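Discussion board: Methods & Data

I've been asked by a reviewer to show the raw model output for two of the constructs in my manuscript, not just the figures. I'm not sure how much to include, so I'm pasting the format here to get opinions. Each protein appears as its amino acid sequence followed by a line of C-alpha cells. Is this the kind of thing reviewers expect to see in a supplement, or should I convert it first? Here is construct A:
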Amino acid sequence: MTITVLKPGLETTVQDYPGRQGMLRDGVPPSGPLDDWSFRLANLLVGNDPGAAALECQFVGPTMRFEQAALIALCGGNLSPKLDLVPIPMWTSLRVEAGQVLSLGGAVSGARAYLAISGGIDVPIVMGSRSTYVTARLGGIEGRPLAAGQTLAIGRSSAPVGVGRSVLAARRPPLPNDKTHRISVVPGPKHDWVTSAGHQQFYATEWKLTSRSNRVGFRLQGEQIEFSPQAYEKDPENGDHPSNIIDIGYPIGGINWAGETPIILMHDCITLGGFIVPFTVPSGEFWKLAQARPGDVLRFTPVSVESAQRVRRAIEEICSPSSIED
C-alpha cells in the first residue's frame, strides 16, 4: 500500500512511540510524538500497536492521495481534515478508498494532529526506532519532514478492524478553550540555584510561548527570576552568568535557563550543556505543550514526583484498548 504526498504541510514527520530509547548518553534524543496520548489513541483506532509509526502534523497539515484503500484515524489538535474536500470527523476510524485525497488545513484548535494508518508507516528502523530526528537527519524518511512528490509505504495489517470505532470522549486529552495552558513541574537538577522568592516568581508569571519554538525547545518570554547566592559564588570554570554551570546532562522536559531565556527541552533536544535546569516538566504534561501555539500563555504549578507519576500512570491506562468503543 502506498500514499502519495501532494503537499507536505508544515514539517510533517514520521514518529513512533516511545521513540529512540537508551541513546541519550550518546547524544541522541528520543524524538517520537510530542503528544503521545493522542498518538497512541489514533493507532489503537486502526488496530495498530499503540507505538506504530504514524505522522505528526503540526500547525498546517499535509495533503495526500491514497493509492489503495486504507483505514485511518486522526487524533489531537483539529487541523480541519477533509476527504475529497468533504469534512471528516476526528477521534474515529474511517475508510479511505483508492484515489481519494486527504487534506489537513490550518489548526483550528490545538497545534498538532496525529494520522495513523492501519499497518503503520513502513520506514527503516534506525537505532531502534522509526522516529524522525530532523536535526541529525536520522530516521523517518531520510531524516527529513515530508516533501511533495514522495511516496509513503504502508505496512500490512493483520488486525480485522472496521470503520466507525471511536475514542470515548472522557478519555481524550482535554484541550483548553482559552489560550492558557496549566503545566505541572517538578524540581530540576539545579532547583537550589534559584531562591524561594525566585520559585514563587516563576509560578506567578504568565510565560508566553514564542514563535522561536520547535521540537528541540520551546522558548518562553516572561519575568527574570532571582538566583540564589551559589549561582554567583561558584568556581570560575562554571561561567560568569548565574545561569551558567559546568556542562551537565539535560533531562527531557527540563526547563533550561539559557542566560535570560527559559527553554523547555523537547523530544529532539540537545542532551548536554552549560546552563542550569531548575525545573522539569514531567512526561505526563507533554501533551499540553504539544497542543500549545506561539502566543499562548503557560502557567506552571509545582507538584511532587509522586503526583506526576500518578498522572503518567493514568495516561498509560487510558492509552489501552479499553478506551476504544465500536
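Construct B, same format:
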Amino acid sequence: MHRAVGDVSGEEVSFFASVGDHASATLVQSLSPGDAQQETVTTISLRDLIREQAGRQTADDALTFVKLDIEGMERQVFSTLDPGQHGNLVILYEDHGSQTDHVTSFVVERGFRAAFLADDGTLEPIGAANLDRLDALKTNAARGYNLLAFARSGPAAARMAALFPRDLG
C-alpha cells in the first residue's frame, strides 16, 4: 500500500525523504532534511486502515499491530482514535528524546495505556502520574524511544497483561 497515514483519508500530501536517511521521512516539511526529495502520496487515516484490517480478521481476539513512525504527525493521528472502540489495537510509536512535550502525554490523555519499551525488551508503564519518569528514561536527545499504546480493556489489554504481568497502568 503506497499511502501515508494521516488524520483523514484521501488527501494528496507531500512526503519528504532523504535518499540516504529513510528515518528522516516526514509529511511535515519543516522537519524534513535539507536534501529531502518530495513525493506526492494519498493519505489514509489510521481509523480507516484499522477498519480495513478488521474486515480481514477471523478471530474476535485478533490484534491489529501498527508501527507508527510519522515524524511530527503522531498527535493528529492519535486524535482520530477512541481507545474504547479499538480494544484490539496495539500501536508502537516513538517519543523523541529531544521532546519534553511528550507524545505520550497526549496518548495517555486520549485514554490509552502507554508502556515504555526498553532496549532489553522490558516494559515500564507510563501514565499521567509518572510522566516525569519518561524524561529519566529518554537519556539521548538525538534518539527516538519506542512506546506501546493500547486500550484499557479488550483483547490488546488482556494480551499485554498476560505477556507482561507487571501492572501496565
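Answer (T.O., handling editor elsewhere):
This is acceptable in a supplement if you add a one-line summary per construct. For B, something like: The helical segments are 46-54, 74-78, 103-109, 131-137, 155-163.
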